[in-house]
Design a protein that fits this description.
By secondary structure, the protein is an alpha+beta fold. 27% of the residues lie in helices and 31% in strands.
């Protein structure tokens, strides 16, 4: 904890000096083009450096004066579709946005020579994802969006990891979950069908329009897949989830991707196994589960200035080349699409990417998929589970096939029709409620809605065009604030903007226990800010704090704030009082300003430590040192899922913590962690180390020495 406080103070000093003008910026004149580049926030600094490297190394003498802005892949696509002209000149985006970006004219296609170079040096799946018709419209950036299997080695024997049937038996015997999102996600359900050689490929023309599909899910091979899938969904220990957090709730197997590696590792430690997907058996033949593989892409906006457009393509080739992609892997752990990078020792040593590579021969590139497919395919799991015989399985596949065929037999009226879909009226995002045109707007039938119900409005029973609560394309779900009988009214303003309102026509009552609606976004709920007399305790917005992880901890830093003597402040989350910190910690007293000045406030939420740095003098004041509550976690409490951590105490103030005597059995595993959170944990070999394994039954005192960062067991 002393280490965390020291880092917090150091960070406070850095920001205070910056506020006083200690930093400086320099620019280099002579650039040929001013451009805007959109990348995710965590990639901003690296991208700036890479563009600077291009400027200094390219043989053409091109110089870009680049403004690199933090824009997520999803927001980049939405913003480009909304207003191409105002969009970034270069931008990162997720492959599932590719078709709509092509249709919107937001991507400048590659020339023949550039396309040939990209195809030769990149992962075939990523190349396919960037191709419409015979033309390439984007550059492969990553190739790490796929799934594989995590498992608990203390439950699953290594010799069983290749067999679905053995995994089911192991989890049922141990009373542990087999988490595979096989009833709620088309992305994961497809795995079973790819295993038997089925295909589902949507074909687009060069303008990105879907014109046909090659789909063989409803076939003899598809029936085999359904039989294999039924084995899993019928198991009492099947859990339709793809979150590694399920390991803390009793899972022994989780099918997920590289984004979940740190979560899985934090819970299981050395017991974490990572490998490709298993095989299932039908009629004496084994079928290795398939998977989708996906990627991120880089797009270049069409330019009126042909020379600028050509220069941007050179920069795009540099940013997606071997050197730049390896730099992203080293800094951000993004799995490269570049074939040479994929073969490097560093990439081959990453457990998640190794598992992806092992799964690769059984994976299918996720091309461009028509938006309605995700709803059509995700019900296969439920239909298969409901089937009682082979005829029922065949009926599930026929139902799927009929809906696929209907996509291409829809009339222009069907494609233009608007509907409401959501977790409403006893449905779960699987039923469209039609809307009728009335006076230039579109109105639904009367729907009984309850507090917390969520919905969106979409066109053509597809997700290609949909509007949410804020009226934006692909916007957030509309959340019902109070129960009632409603008509949902849609007023379309443009291709990318609409207004959704609820017209209440009758009363209804919420089910017992319904919680009030929280209208904040997830970002708003998680945001930290400073509140106090400076904004009359919330009458105006809290002063925002920005996250900084330079210390290795998540620390939040305010902008410089002018405070008068006698002002009072606190720090709170989500502009609400549920979680707040003051002079003596959580829910503590107001912080009273003793000396007027301009201050930068730093806050570390794990411990509650608060420091204030005077931006004029650089002096740093510790407001609250934070709370260090160390505890023992492990198999003894289901890794936190079956009880509180066992408390530890530092009686002598020497940074050595001891637990009360604990009954442990041979094979039990433990770690020590701070404040019941995995951000700071200590194991057998130090911080973030391996689990401590108990060798013999007995009563032990767990000893945590923060000076040496060790965990030992003393007989108690």
């Amino acid at each position: 904890m002393k280490k965390a406080l020291a880092l917090l103070l150091a960070l406070a000093m850095v920001f205070a000096l910056a506020a006083c003008g200690g930093g400086n910026t320099a620019s280099k004149d002579g650039g040929s083009y001013d451009i805007v580049v959109w990348v995710p926030e965590l990639a901003v600094d690296l991208t700036k450096q890479q563009i600077a490297d291009f400027n200094s190394s390219n043989e053409y003498g091109i110089t870009f004066n680049a403004t690199v802005e933090p824009v997520s892949e999803a927001d980049a696509a939405n913003n480009m579709v909304t207003d191409v002209e105002a969009g970034g000149d270069i931008y990162f985006f997720a492959q599932d946005q590719f078709a709509r970006l092509v249709q919107a004219g937001a991507l400048n296609k590659l020339g023949a020579e550039a396309a040939a170079t990209v195809k030769a040096s990149n992962d075939a799946g990523a190349v396919k994802a960037a191709t419409s018709g015979e033309e390439m419209f984007a550059y492969p950036l990553t190739a790490d969006n796929g799934y594989y299997m995590y498992y608990d080695k203390s439950v699953i024997p290594e010799e069983d990891v290749d067999s679905v049937e053995k995994l089911i038996a192991d989890t049922e015997a141990a009373g542990k979950y087999f988490a595979f999102e096989a009833e709620t996600s088309a992305w994961y359900i497809a795995s079973w069908f790819f295993a038997t050689g089925c295909v589902s490929e949507w074909i687009t023309d060069e303008n990105g329009k879907f014109i046909s599909i090659k789909d063989t899910f409803n076939s003899p091979e598809g029936l085999i897949a359904a039989k294999g899938l039924k084995k899993l969904v019928d198991s009492p220990m099947h859990l339709s989830s793809s979150s590694a957090s399920e390991f803390s709730s009793g899972a022994a197997v989780v099918v997920s991707g590289i984004w979940d590696y740190e979560t899985a590792k934090g819970i299981l430690g050395d017991n974490l196994g990572v490998t490709d997907l298993p095989s299932f058996e039908v009629d004496g033949k084994e079928y290795h589960l398939g998977s989708f593989n996906g990627c991120k892409l880089l797009g270049v906006k069409p330019q009126a200035d042909a020379a600028k457009g050509a220069a941007l393509h050179l920069l795009a080739q540099y940013l997606t080349g071997e050197k730049a992609e390896m730099e992203r892997f080293d800094a951000l752990s993004w799995g490269p699409a570049n074939l040479a990078d994929q073969a490097s020792d560093a990439v081959q040593a990453n457990p998640g990417l190794v598992a992806l590579a092992k799964q690769a021969p059984y994976s299918v590139p996720q091309g461009n998929i028509e938006g309605s497919w995700w709803d059509i395919a995700k019900v296969i799991g439920d239909d298969v589970k409901a089937a009682t015989d082979e005829a029922g399985l065949q009926a599930a596949l026929q139902n799927y096939s009929d809906k696929i065929d209907a996509v291409f037999t829809r009339t222009e009226e069907d494609l233009a029709a608007w509907s409401v879909i959501g977790s409403i009226c006893g449905t779960n995002w699987d039923t469209d409620f039609p809307m009728s045109e009335a006076g230039g707007s579109f109105v639904s039938e009367q729907l009984e809605l309850h507090t917390g119900d969520e919905f969106k409005v979409r066109q053509g029973a597809s997700w290609t065009v949909n509007f949410g609560a804020d009226g934006s394309l692909d916007g957030p779900n509309y959340v019902v604030e109070e129960p009632g009988i409603y008509e949902v009214v849609l007023e379309v303003k443009s291709d990318t903007e609409a207004v959704i309102t609820l017209n209440k026509v009758g009363d209804a009552e919420d089910p017992e226990g319904t919680e009030p609606v929280d209208e904040r976004t997830e970002e708003e709920k998680n945001a930290w800010g400073v509140v106090g007399t400076i904004n009359n305790w919330g009458e105006t917005p809290d002063i925002p704090m920005t996250e900084n992880t330079d210390t290795g901890f998540s620390v939040f830093v305010s902008e410089p704030i002018e405070l008068a003597e006698g002002d009072e402040i606190k720090i709170r989350q989500g502009a609400a009082w549920d979680v707040n910190y003051g002079a003596n910690g959580k829910n503590g007293d107001n912080i009273v300003i003793e000396t007027a000045g301009t201050y930068v406030i730093t806050f570390e939420p794990l411990s509650g430590a608060i420091a204030m740095a005077n931006a004029e003098t650089g002096d740093v004041t510790v407001v609250f040192e934070g709370v260090a509550e160390w505890g023992v976690v492990g198999t003894i409490n289901g890794w936190g899922g079956e009880g509180d951590d066992v408390a530890m105490a530092d009686e002598d103030g020497d940074n050595v913590y001891e637990s009360e005597p604990i009954e442990l059995k041979a094979g039990d595993e433990i770690k020590c962690r701070l404040n019941a959170d995995w951000t700071m944990n200590v194991g057998a070999d130090g911080q973030d180390g391996a689990n401590v394994v108990v060798e013999a039954d007995g009563t032990y005192v767990v000893v945590l020495d923060l000076n040496a960062m060790t965990v030992t067991l003393a007989e108690g």
